[in-house]
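input
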Amino acid sequence: MTAIFLDGREYTEVKEDRYTNFSYPRFPKLMKFNTERYKVPGFGSFMTMHTKTVFGKEGAKEFFTTCVMPVDE
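output
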């Protein structure tokens, strides 16, 4: 999804920080998150988040979230 949205656009990847890879709650680590964040000039921000969780009847589940945050200019 990231490549589809960013292909042909100028963008800057947001540097890694404490929100790039984190778990919730801290203990026990029931959910693990991995995010990729980008600034797109003239558009705003774009983020993808891959979540792994131990919840569910059949065991672990995975979620993929995409967030688009346009800038109102």
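quick obs: Strands lie at 12-13, 21-24, 31-40, 44-53, 61-70.
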